[in-house]
């Protein structure tokens, strides 16, 4: 089977790590794609996740984007490594580069105290725990949804503790997580973030719906937070800075999603290309029919454009900028391109493409969800349109 070669070449260090990750995912993780240890929703059970992580630990590719001294690779280096980990839907789970853990590790690495890092970050980096980020709220409660400024979850100080009340939804991995990052609004209107040991009886899981995607353990729960008491020492950063910390996490996290799912779409394209070159129809290989060959050609174009967009946005983040505008652009462009790639792969493979005989149909489902997760395409376009208006007004002043 021919393989897509990326032009990303950020550093010899990153290339060496990415090569090891790719070999591990292709040789060790891919066979696990048929492992039946799944929940009712089809997501991998923790037993399967931690078994794969032990293999990753032995292979030296566990949490490869965080270096031995605790520092993070640059975003450009991370891009190459995370794309390679995404060559299987199970790859990021095995290598510990999956959301929400990867984004949570990034945030804690940049904003947590040393004591908080030792208690909450260390088990995540070691791949011995999962985490959840509690920000999104149910829209049927007139909660935040995609607009955190509408947050209804509250926190109030009570002595040397904070008391939190509210509801959250689409909390990825909450069921089974050991570490939680909870976002709430203080009485003065400022947002705060808190680190929480899970499970906690004050955080009740109300519902874990079946969703179109199935790659993340714990799925996407709706929870009620009822008088959760958190020691003041477990506040992340300063009171009122929660929105600022959210951007520290969300901008690179959006880009990390692009990286991982590009890896999955590259693999889907490899599978579809192999099918088209082997499958005969009407006297010749499918690839020789323009209707099929042109779809695969368009895939190559979209893969390269996605790669270049990721590299550009990563370069912006590496300058120290929050890169909210750039990450919005990348999220829209890459998620839409990956949707086109996944859709063409299904179409090229016909009936086989809609079965579970390959990962192509799962990649299609996962990427379809990605167009919504971490901000729907339309929300990011709206944000970019506001920037156009703002820039115009500034130019007129």
UniProtKB/TrEMBL annotation:
Pfam family, one: Acyl-CoA_dh_1
InterPro entries: Acyl-CoA_dehydrogenase (IPR050741), Acyl-CoA_Oxase/DH_mid-dom (IPR006091), Acyl-CoA_Oxase/DH_mid-dom_sf (IPR046373), AcylCo_DH-like_C (IPR036250), AcylCo_DH/oxidase_C (IPR009075), AcylCoA_DH/ox_N (IPR013786), AcylCoA_DH/ox_N_sf (IPR037069), AcylCoA_DH/oxidase_NM_dom_sf (IPR009100)
GO cellular component: cytoplasm
Cofactor entry: FAD
Acyl-CoA oxidase/dehydrogenase middle domain ranges (all copies): 132-210
Acyl-CoA dehydrogenase/oxidase N-terminal domain mapped to chain residues: 15-127
UniProt cross-references to CDD domains, sorted A to Z: ACAD
Quaternary structure note: Homodimer.
Family note: Belongs to the acyl-CoA dehydrogenase family.
Name of protein: Acyl-CoA dehydrogenase family protein
């Amino acid at each position: 089977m021919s393989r897509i070669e990326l032009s990303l070449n950020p550093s010899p260090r990153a290339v060496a790590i990415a090569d090891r990750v790719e070999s591990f995912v292709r040789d060790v993780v891919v066979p696990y794609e048929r492992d039946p240890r799944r929940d009712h929703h089809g997501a991998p059970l923790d037993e399967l996740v931690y078994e794969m992580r032990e293999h990753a630990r032995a292979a030296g590719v566990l949490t490869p984007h965080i270096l031995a001294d605790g520092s993070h690779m640059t975003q450009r280096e991370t891009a190459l490594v995370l794309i390679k980990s995404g060559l299987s839907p199970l790859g990021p789970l095995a290598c510990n580069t999956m959301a929400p853990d990867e984004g949570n590790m990034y945030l804690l690495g940049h904003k947590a105290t040393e004591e908080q890092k030792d208690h909450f970050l260390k088990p995540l980096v070691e791949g011995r725990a999962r985490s959840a980020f509690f920000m999104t709220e149910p829209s049927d409660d007139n909660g935040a949804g995609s607009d955190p400024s509408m947050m209804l979850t509250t926190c109030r100080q009570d002595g040397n503790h904070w008391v939190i009340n509210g509801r959250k939804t689409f909390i990825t991995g909450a069921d089974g997580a050991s570490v939680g990052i909870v976002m709430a609004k203080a009485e003065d209107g400022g947002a705060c973030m808190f680190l929480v040991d899970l499970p906690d009886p004050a955080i009740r899981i109300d519902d874990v719906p079946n969703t179109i995607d199935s790659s993340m353990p714990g799925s996407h729960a709706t929870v009620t937070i009822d008088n959760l008491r958190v020691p003041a020492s477990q506040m992340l950063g300063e009171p009122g800075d929660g929105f600022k910390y959210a951007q520290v996490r969300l901008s690179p996290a959006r880009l990390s999603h692009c990286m991982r799912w590009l890896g999955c779409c590259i693999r889907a394209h490899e599978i579809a290309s192999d099918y088209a070159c082997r499958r005969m129809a009407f006297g010749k290989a499918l690839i020789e029919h323009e209707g099929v060959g042109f779809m695969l050609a368009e895939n190559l174009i979209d893969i390269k454009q996605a790669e270049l967009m990721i590299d550009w946005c990563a370069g912006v983040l590496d300058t120290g900028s929050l890169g909210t505008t750039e990450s919005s652009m990348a999220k829209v462009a890459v998620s839409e391109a990956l949707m086109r790639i996944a859709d063409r792969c299904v179409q090229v493979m016909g009936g086989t493409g809609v079965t579970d005989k390959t990962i192509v149909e799962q990649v299609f489902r996962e990427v379809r969800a990605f167009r919504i997760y971490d901000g729907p395409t339309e929300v990011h376009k709206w944000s970019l349109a506001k920037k156009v208006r703002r820039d115009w007004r500034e130019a007129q002043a």
